[in-house]
């Protein structure tokens, strides 16, 4: 090993932020919070991304606090999830509780906040860099502020802390005539190319290769911005999804380890995957177990494929919701060790295990898997 390489390795080992993929052994993770959660605004970029029933209910109550009957069971599950991660030896870091109901404004618009249930969406980790993403939901504009004490601490301990240009989120960014595509119609997005925007959760990382789906929160200019920012050491590949209301890749496709991809058969056509993924094993996610609880069904901000929103502890162990027995069994058949953790109530706040977390340190180095 030359001097440079060994110095690089020393820095990586000491740095509190060091993660290159979704499966290396997990050492530290940020887990979101529910305190202070506020029902998101009825801006079209919000409502077009939420299932119809929840969107209608939330539009009526936008800006109010989420009711207790939704917070309490989700909080219990969240506490259980944190305890489970700690029992597995993972360091769990939490954002501050902040009042997301507070109103804020730019010269062009004003909004209240939402919550910090999903750190996966607002920050991306590339090795020792943690990047704040330019999010398209106005109510999420200041969301990373609840993570600033953590970010400053990581920075002081050696991490690189960056942020994409803060978007303006003026009307020019949103197509005023946008409606969701009907079955059979070509996909379209609410975003224009006015300025770069992207959510971190539209990307997943496999070492030097990064994969992205375009969505109603990530435009082509956002993807280009990140491509240029990352430079020559990385390649960003776009994955085509058939999801009619795409927002966040982690209910569509996720890598489980080098050479293994979990796909949602409704949204992904394996023949349309980028060529470099064609050599990987495709593991087709089983049909999600239906959720019959009416309250859970009505309040969920997500679709049924949240069953795929799993978290890898390492290349073998994976956290899965025990409600999703098909997924639990299938994981075992594929040779994984599923660890059950009940988490269905969190869907009302935007996700499950993958969304609710940001893996900031996994033991491993930057590699090319292709
Ligand atoms: N990282 C996240 N917040 N992911 C949530 C994905 C939700 C996705 N739009 C669905 O409805 O299934």
UniProtKB/TrEMBL annotation:
Active site, per annotation: 199, 248, 355
GO terms (BP aspect): creatine biosynthetic process
InterPro entries xref list: AmidinoTrfase
Gene3D superfamilies cross-referenced by the UniProt entry: L-arginine/glycine Amidinotransferase, Chain A
Key words of the record: Transferase
GO molecular function list: glycine amidinotransferase activity
Homology family: Belongs to the amidinotransferase family.
Protein name: Amidinotransferase
Source organism of this protein record: Methylocystis hirsuta
